[in-house]
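hey m, so remember when u said the tokens were messed up on ur end? i reran from scratch. heres the input so u can diff it against urs
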Amino acid sequence: MSAPIRLGNIDLSFHAASAAIVQRLLERHGHDVETVAAPHEEMFRRYGADEVDMLVSAWLPASHGGYFGPFEHETRKLGLLYQPYCIWGVPDYVPEADVASVEDLRKPEVAERMSRLIQGINPGAGISRFSREMVTAYGLDGLGYHFETGSEEACFSHFERAVAQKEWLVVPLWHPQFLHYRYRIRELAEPKGLLGGRDDARLIVHETVARTMSGELLETLSTLALGNAVVSELDYRICREGMTPLAAADRWLDGATKIGAA
């Protein structure tokens, strides 16, 4: 009997959502699966150290390219799961005439109303690296704006509390993410191009492991395309409806029965 496939994902809920889909597809093709989650740098370290066989997912080329580069030569890229991109956004009740661009945050009348706290997630995330640079590059630090890292829940609950009070704030976010399923968040123009652009979220697997998979499984994984809207919805089911990642995956796969049937 073949060894279980060690499936890793970055320890954020939307990564867990797409990893659960991949896990179910592997299981449909007869593989036992061992799962592990870790923060960004640690997960790529484990992948490079051959402690995990597959990783869901690498955001390439911008967000995770630096982590992935040393291992690219030994990796096969499979499905383009979705196309993530980072944003700074504001709730849609903040008038676009007043705040349409990151540069508008410097307007005295905007800075007076806007929360100076820009609450982010863990420090290794692409959006965190980009946001730290933006606060300085746009001269926002001189106006009292400050970016803080924290947990996912710290970031998301900060946004939801502010929305409940109709407060003005900036949320450093990305697509796909469950807040987009529930709220209307307007992306701010970012003329300096510091947010990294649009990435491809690729399922990656060590080449030696890929060679042990059936052609049918490789075809299924290579053509797997969830899309941003699906991942945002799965993320909402997990984070705000209390479903486990596997339960959310099963619900979605029940409506896509042709995917991955062995």
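this time it looks ok to me. The chain has eleven helices and ten strands. if urs says something different then somethings off w ur setup not the seq
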